[in-house]
Write a structure and sequence with these properties.
Strands 3-2-1-4-5-6 form a six-stranded parallel beta sheet, sandwiched between helices. A five-stranded antiparallel beta sheet has the order 7-8-11-9-10, covered by helices on one side. 31% of the residues lie in helices and 26% in strands. The protein is elongated and about 60 Å long. It is α/β, with parallel strands linked by helices and 220 residues long. The protein contains seven helices and eleven strands. 33% of the residues are buried. The protein folds into two domains: 127 residues, NAD(P)-binding Rossmann-like Domain (Rossmann fold); 81 residues, 2-Layer Sandwich (Alpha-Beta Plaits), CATH 3.30.70.
Amino acid sequence: MRVVIVGGGSLGYNLALSLIDKDYEVHLIEKSKTLCMQLANKLDAEVICGDGTEIEVLADAIKGKTDCFIAVTDRDQDNLVASQLAQKRFQIKKVITRANNPRNLEALRKLGIHNAVCSTELITKLIEQELNSAGGRLIASLNKGKAGICELQVLKDSKLVGKALKDVRLPKSSLIVSLLRDDELIIPQGETTFAPGDEVIAICTGESQKKLIKIFSECL
């Protein structure tokens, strides 16, 4: 997996180290020349000296296919600009943005940055999370990243269509709390059946989340 990180501070550095240890190809952008020299000596990664909010600098780092883009500078405004450019200009599908101020999380998401997070642990989980055609995504972290609230969608050819909740073998440590169907909120009971297009909200641990996504992605 090829990852581009904007921001070489403590979070960016430790995140790069973690990803390199997992054999990811890491490219890091940092605008401080002094910090760039230090990072280049410490990391087995390409370190680009420049402003991650500038198109030319991003283009230098985003060459060919980039699987994930992460903006973790200490300025939420810079993270937003860099992330929007990555999404709209460079068409990167997985973009993760650091919100230094938790109050900015909702604003970032409303501006199209859905993976706006605050913790290093959650960022790592988001990178490793295998999202698929079921449309699964983590929308909130619980218990310091050990569990989360995820959103899934029932596909039109899913094995779940027409099946009652009580007949679905859910993984341990997971709970389906609501369905959204044609703008109607449904609190599911055992007899509630799934329909194509249902948007499902579930609470689950990290391991059960992967199993739950797999259940929703199985088609006829």
